[in-house]
UniProtKB/TrEMBL annotation:
Region annotated Disordered, chain positions: 1-27, 309-345
Protein name per Swiss-Prot or TrEMBL: Uncharacterized protein
Lineage: superkingdom: Eukaryota
GO cellular component, one term: trans-Golgi network
InterPro entries: PHAF1 (IPR005373), PHAF1/BROMI (IPR039156)
GO biological process: Golgi to plasma membrane protein transport
Family, as annotated: Belongs to the PHAF1 family.
A Pfam family: PHAF1
Low complexity bias (residue ranges): 1-25
Organism of this sequence: Phycomyces blakesleeanus (strain ATCC 8743b / DSM 1359 / FGSC 10004 / NBRC 33097 / NRRL 1555)
Stretches with biased composition (Basic and acidic residues): 315-327
Length: 507
């Protein structure tokens, strides 16, 4: 696995106003105090919280977290875990690659932080996290596990684990014994080298993401309260239908102890949903349902209109119907000349400015028609690392549902000259996702196989090549360009070089 590491150094932000005389007196790093809540959180880091929220938190507190390193797989970023490393604080945060949510916390150097449990110090400048102290602080538990190969003893509590290096000369004492290493024969006691917090498993290595409950959702949103709506600041999933719209599902109270697979297949309830219908939902409806957007962006120009014609609409951008009528009226040879003043008053020549509602915390944009003030397009963001918009939007957990009838017809045509397949089956033996559904975890090639239409892509004979999208120079965008491919039926996809889809537009 090829791993890419991005480093964010925040110290320069706070030292930029210092003069040269202060360069010899660097500010001492403040030791942060982290409260241990087994199976839930370590200080401000809560299991189940999103990668987007965590990085926002770290950016807002550079005096406590001067260096932040993000590690991920360049080739398959959604199939491998993300790791946020805080070397100055001795902390690793591990996130599920596809969900981008925190599943385990590792404090690999307790001496760099102050650990507190129930108002008592576990590790600090004056407290050493010895085995005796931890056993006294957290109470009795079952015998731990001894790894003879690494000479490490692991003491476990529900949602919490401590590791203790055992000197080689004392290994034989714990290889076949259930005794706790309270104290070595020489009178010394083991000192904790690492602390792990996790949920959903007895081993932190198999930790999974907890279900997205309302408690977790509100905790994630508590960092930024200037936008959004209470109870609707964290998405559980979005079910979208091309040309129709999307239904947003927000988390409700936890109804069971499900913590793992339920995060990938959320239980949807109709008690906390929002329906956005293309060309029908008004701006007022959206504001009432979702609250204030993170930003409102006015679309001053349409750079994709050059690829459109009045008679041949491509999937990249549909020609504005008002513009079509204006062009048609101007082509009448028998019509009189129109003055500039009359043209300004002509409703067919005046184009109101469309505008976006940017909901960064939901991972979506909603384009509003400037004249009718209804939803014109919905943009879904995947927050793919290596993309220009990475960390601008939270990952949107979308699913796009197509007509089963269209999918079966497409599969029937595709396999008419090949081996017969059961097009009546909703699922593939190797993929539990129904064949008529596209998810945010899929690559573009997989999506295109499931979409029952012909795309405007180079992969189709006699079709146009995909449009290349470049955002600035290599210095502004070191990750390079992407390409756009779309369908006349109402979908445009942006595809990165590794085949993932960071952006989908529904219209």
């Amino acid at each position: 696995m090829t791993t890419h590491t991005s480093t964010i150094t925040n110290t320069t932000k706070h030292n930029s106003n210092n003069n040269n005389n202060n360069n010899n007196n660097p500010q001492r790093l403040k030791r942060i105090e982290l409260v241990i809540t087994p199976g839930k959180s370590l200080g401000p880091f809560r299991l189940g919280s999103s990668l987007w929220d965590t990085i926002q938190l770290l950016r807002d507190r550079p005096q406590f977290f001067p260096t932040v390193e993000l590690k991920y797989s360049q080739k398959d970023p959604l199939r491998h875990d993300f790791i946020i490393s805080l070397p100055s604080n001795g902390i690793h945060l591990r996130y599920d690659g596809s969900l981008q949510r925190l599943k385990s916390i590792e404090c690999f150097d307790p001496s760099k932080v102050k650990l507190v449990y129930q108002n008592g110090d576990v590790s600090s400048s004056r407290t050493i996290p010895t085995f005796l102290l931890i056993y006294k602080s957290f109470g009795p538990t079952y015998p731990g596990e001894f790894d003879a190969a690494k000479s490490i003893y692991t003491l476990k509590y529900p949602g919490l684990a401590f590791t203790f290096p055992i000197p080689l000369r004392f290994q034989t004492l714990y290889q076949s014994s259930s005794d706790l290493p309270m104290e070595f024969p020489d009178g010394t006691t083991p000192i904790a080298s690492r602390v792990y917090l996790y949920t959903g498993s007895t081993h932190w290595q198999q930790a999974t993401v907890p279900s997205l409950s309302k408690v977790i959702a509100e905790h994630n949103a508590s960092i930024s309260t200037k936008y959004g709506k209470l109870g609707r600041r964290e998405l559980e999933t979005i079910i979208a239908k091309p040309t129709k719209g999307a239904t947003l599902y927000f988390p409700t109270q936890v109804s069971s102890n499900e913590t793992t697979d339920s995060a990938r297949e959320p239980v949807k309830t109709t008690s906390n949903t929002v329906q956005i219908t293309l060309h029908l939902s008004t701006a007022q409806d959206i504001l009432a349902d979702l609250g204030k957007p993170s930003r409102i962006f006015y679309k001053e120009e349409d750079k994709m209109k050059i690829h459109s014609t009045a008679n041949d609409l491509t999937a990249l951008e549909k020609q504005d119907t008002k513009g079509d009528r204006s062009k048609a009226s101007g082509s009448n040879n028998g019509s009189r000349a129109v003055s500039a003043e009359e043209e300004d008053k002509d409703p067919f020549t005046v184009h109101p400015t469309d505008y976006f509602f940017n909901y960064f915390h939901l991972g979506i944009d909603i384009l509003i028609d400037g004249g009718l003030h209804v939803c014109k397009k919905i943009v879904l963001h995947g927050n793919i690392p290596g993309h220009y918009d990475f960390q601008r939007y939270k990952r949107c957990p979308f699913q796009i549902v197509f007509s089963k009838k269209d999918v079966k017809q497409a599969n029937g045509k595709e396999n008419s000259n090949n081996v017969l397949v059961d097009v009546e089956s909703d699922t593939d033996d190797n993929d539990p996702v129904p064949v008529h559904i596209v998810t945010a975890e899929m690559k573009a090639a997989t999506m295109q196989k499931r979409i029952p239409w012909k795309s405007n892509d180079v992969s189709n004979a006699n079709e146009q090549k995909p449009v290349i999208l470049t955002r600035g120079s290599s210095e502004q965008n070191p990750f390079g360009s992407t390409h756009l491919t779309g369908y006349d039926e109402g979908i445009v996809m942006e595809v990165t070089k590794n085949g993932y889809v960071p952006t989908i537009v529904l219209y």
